[in-house]
Amino acid sequence: MATIAADPGMHEMIHDENLPLVRRLEAVGFRAWPASSVAYDGSWQIRLTGSHPSKRLNCLVALDPSDVRDIPLRIEKAERKFAAHGRPLLVRETPLSPRPLLDYLAQNGWERFEEVVTLTADLTTIELPDGLDYLPTQDVGRYVDADIAVHGADPAGKPALAEIVSAIQPPTGLFVIEDAEDGPLAATLCVQDNDLAGLMSLAVRADRRRQGLGVELLTSALRWARMRGARAAWLQVVADNKAALALYAKMGFTEAYRYAYWRKGA
């Protein structure tokens, strides 16, 4: 499967024949992690969520490589919109991003950061390992508490995270591994969007890693999605997380494309 080049400043686009897959995965990704406010400037999507700092929920995403009109003016307009919400503008680069937009950012002091790999797996052929099978909960509060605990996040973010999870429209399985005495050990959510299943926010508590909990949780979520009719799975992982990439490759996931963010340099 084609990937973008390794140049950290300007990545080459993947082949055109892969763009329909990118468009579909981007669309299901938006539904799997919904922003509270979505506006459009042409084909540029402007995503804002005042209650949560997630970059995916607060960024500009161009969805058509040919939409290149008035780039400086539209960037300035988006910056004002983000500033009104108390946030700096972030631009999310995907294979759908117009080359002139990326050139403009690079030539005007913007910096590229946090490359993320989107992976996919064929659920009709993947062999899932045997092991404990965890059933999903529908208790959003329980899931959010577990997610915050395993990530070591600030508990003050619970209301915002609960709002995002509750806003997900496609069927969603909330998976948690807990210990009666030790509390939450691992958590993930699986969003089934027709024949696609997205794994979001998979994490194991730092002191319980390398014990197979991640594989057990991932397997349970994929088995749940497959039983509900999903034929393919997708997930996203930061490109420098070598351990996670190795685990997902072993499970049968392969790279579909990468994305990254741009921010205005100091």
UniProtKB/TrEMBL annotation:
One GO MF term attached to the UniProt entry? acyltransferase activity, transferring groups other than amino-acyl groups
Annotated ranges, domain N-acetyltransferase: 130-266
Q: Does the keyword NADP apply?
A: no
Q: Which Pfam families match?
A: Acetyltransf_1 (PF00583)
The UniProt record lists the keyword Transferase: yes
**InterPro entries per record:** Acyl_CoA_acyltransferase, Bact_Acetyltransf, GNAT_dom
List the SUPFAM superfamilies.
Acyl-CoA N-acyltransferases (Nat)
Keyword terms of this UniProt record: Acyltransferase, Transferase
Q: Mind telling me what this protein is named?
A: GNAT family N-acetyltransferase
What organism is this sequence from? Answer: Peteryoungia ipomoeae
